[in-house]
Design brief:
There is one protein chain. By secondary structure, the chain is an all-alpha fold. 69% of the residues lie in helices and 0% in strands. It has helices at 7-10, 12-27, 32-46, 49-61, 66-71, 83-96, 104-113, 116-138. The chain starts with 6 loop residues before the first helix and ends in a 9-residue tail after the last helix.
Length: 147
C-alpha cells in the first residue's frame, strides 16, 4: 500500500477543478462508447493500472464487448473498430504521446469525420483522462482485486 499524497485531501480545490473538467466531459455529446475508448486507450498507453481497471469495468457495464476491450491495444490490426473509432483512437494515441506531436494526417482525418464541436469534445476528453492518469500514476493508486 502506498503512503503517497492524496491530492483530493491536501488540495481539494485543485482536485475539484479536475473533477469539474471530468463532469464537463460527461455532459458533452460524446457517445459512451467514444468516451470509454478514449479512457481505456490513453490509460493503456500511460500504463495507469487504476484507470485501466476502472474504465474497462465501466465500458463492460455500458455494453462494450470483451473482444473489443482485449483488442484495443492492437486496434489497427483488427476489424472491430469503425472508421470514426479508428480516427478517435489514432488521435488519442498521438495526443497522449504528445512529444511526437499530432500529425496533420491524424488531425485532418478526425476533422473530416467529426464536426468541430464534437472534435473539441474528443480532444478535451483525451486531455482529461491524461490528467487523471498522471494523478493515478504519481500518487500510486492501485485497483482493488475483485472476486
Amino acid at each position: 500500500m502506498s503512503n503517497r499524497i492524496k491530492i483530493n485531501e491536501v488540495q481539494p480545490a485543485g482536485y475539484r477543478a479536475i473533477l469539474a473538467l471530468e463532469k464537463f466531459i460527461e455532459s458533452t455529446s460524446l457517445t459512451t462508447i467514444h468516451k470509454d475508448l478514449i479512457k481505456i486507450r490513453a490509460s493503456q498507453i500511460n500504463e495507469c493500472a487504476f484507470c485501466i481497471d476502472m474504465h474497462t469495468l465501466d465500458a463492460r457495464k455500458s455494453g462494450e464487448t470483451e473482444q473489443r476491450i482485449y483488442a484495443l491495444s492492437a486496434w489497427r490490426d483488427t476489424p472491430f473498430f469503425d472508421e470514426q473509432e479508428r480516427a478517435l483512437l489514432a488521435l488519442t494515441e498521438e495526443v497522449t504521446l504528445i512529444s511526437n506531436h499530432v500529425s496533420d494526417e491524424t488531425y485532418k482525418n478526425a476533422a473530416c469525420l467529426f464536426d468541430p464541436a464534437y472534435l473539441a469534445e474528443i480532444i478535451l476528453a483525451i486531455i482529461t483522462i491524461n490528467a487523471w492518469n498522471r494523478i493515478g500514476i504519481t500518487t500510486a493508486l492501485e485497483p482493488a482485486l475483485r472476486s
